[in-house]
């Protein structure tokens, strides 16, 4: 099968014919319909993710059609269209039993710990515990984004920070996570301020319904947010994983505010010096979040199916597998608005 293989950090992916994946006894093999290109894939491409061993097939935001099932699979058959969270939990340990599958100690993460979906086909273990049926009306490119950016934002806003209608949300970073948070928060009924350093991306966020935008390249973002909100945001989302935006997000909150760290602090950003006096004096709550448990898919899908949120503005570019290298390299600089999704695996 055709795949884009990481053979050297910061090097173009090798478009190659590789062996077909073996079907796990508890899993399935999917023909990939679409796979997002995410900043987390960029961390792998740069060598910042310790789980990745070369050669490696990236890609963790995917949907596909079941081609083969293992003997222990009971819920899925050939021809089913499915999506999966990027964290595949065992479904049996105490963490999974308590509903916290994203903390499963034996989690499998395609695109990081296992071969990913920058390929025509992917093996997905633990299928009965993790796969969700793809709604017939949902375009594969959009469904692929649900595997990471949309689901992570949804869980961060609702499962961690408990964002409420009427509250102010400040989002630092207008990439895939940031745009997802904006669209979902608007559906909840929150008022959203988007923060970035790229005017084009802020204009795009404003066009998608942001109540206000702040250009951190020319403004003191926390001060601007306190001015807009009359005291600070109720909730802040950090969507980049760097110290500057994490500190600004903390400083943008009102007393008793809640912050969700969604951006992945990798490489040199894995250690940060934070203003703990702000945390202490503001009596803030700081949440880490990563992914979304599979059991929470119905709440998100029902929101989409009911027409309460249109996530199509997320998809800016539908590209071929051969374009993955250029899209990853683009994360070295402020990327253009929207996300890229691989929809053509033939070239």
From TrEMBL:
List the residue ranges forming a coiled coil, or say none. none
A Pfam family annotated for this chain is ADH_zinc_N
Against InterPro entries, the record matches this protein to: ADH-like_C (IPR013149), ADH-like_N (IPR013154), ADH_Zn_CS (IPR002328), ER (IPR020843), GroES-like_sf (IPR011032), NAD(P)-bd_dom_sf (IPR036291), Zn_alcohol_dh (IPR050129)
* Cofactor(s), names only, from the UniProt record: Zn(2+)
Q: Which domain of life is it from?
A: Bacteria
Q: Reply yes or no: does the keyword Metal-binding apply.
A: yes
What keywords are assigned to this protein?
A: Metal-binding, Oxidoreductase, Zinc
Q: Name all Enoyl reductase (ER) domain ranges.
A: 8-342
| UniProt family annotation | Belongs to the zinc-containing alcohol dehydrogenase family.
Protein name, entry field: Zinc-dependent alcohol dehydrogenase family protein
State the species of origin.
Defluviimonas salinarum
What does the organism's lineage look like at the top?
Answer: Bacteria, Pseudomonadati, Pseudomonadota, Alphaproteobacteria, Rhodobacterales
């Amino acid at each position: 099968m055709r795949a884009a293989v990481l053979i050297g950090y910061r090097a173009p992916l090798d478009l190659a014919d590789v062996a077909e994946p073996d079907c796990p006894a508890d899993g399935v093999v999917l023909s990939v319909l679409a796979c997002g290109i995410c900043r987390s894939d960029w961390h792998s491409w740069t060598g910042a993710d310790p789980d990745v061993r070369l050669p490696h097939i990236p890609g963790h935001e995917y949907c596909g059609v079941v081609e083969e099932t293992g003997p222990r699979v009971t819920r899925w058959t050939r021809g089913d269209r499915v999506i999966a969270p990027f964290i595949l939990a065992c479904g049996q340990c105490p963490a999974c039993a308590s509903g916290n599958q994203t903390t499963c100690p034996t989690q499998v993460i395609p695109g990081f710990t296992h071969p990913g979906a920058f390929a025509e086909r992917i093996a997905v273990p633990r299928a009965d515990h993790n796969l969700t049926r793809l709604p017939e009306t949902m375009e594969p490119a959009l469904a692929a984004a649900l595997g990471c950016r949309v689901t992570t934002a949804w869980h961060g806003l609702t499962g961690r920070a408990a964002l409420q209608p009427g509250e102010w949300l400040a989002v630092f970073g207008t990439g895939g996570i940031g745009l997802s948070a904006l669209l979902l928060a608007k559906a909840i009924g929150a008022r959203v301020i988007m923060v970035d350093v790229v005017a084009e991306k802020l204009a795009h966020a404003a066009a998608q319904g942001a109540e206000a935008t702040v250009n951190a390249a020319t403004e003191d973002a926390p001060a601007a947010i306190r001015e807009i909100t009359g005291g600070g945001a109720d909730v802040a989302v950090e969507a980049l994983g760097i110290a500057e935006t994490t500190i600004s997000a903390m400083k943008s909150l009102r007393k008793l505010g809640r912050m969700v760290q969604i951006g992945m602090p990798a490489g040199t950003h894995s250690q940060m010096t934070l203003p703990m006096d702000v945390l202490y004096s503001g009596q803030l709550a700081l949440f880490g979040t990563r992914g979304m448990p599979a059991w929470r898919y119905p709440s998100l899908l029902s929101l989409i199916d009911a027409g309460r949120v249109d996530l199509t503005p997320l998809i800016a570019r539908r590209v071929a597998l051969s374009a993955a290298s250029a899209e990853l390299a683009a994360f070295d600089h402020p990327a253009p608005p929207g996300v890229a999704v691989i929809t053509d695996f033939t070239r």
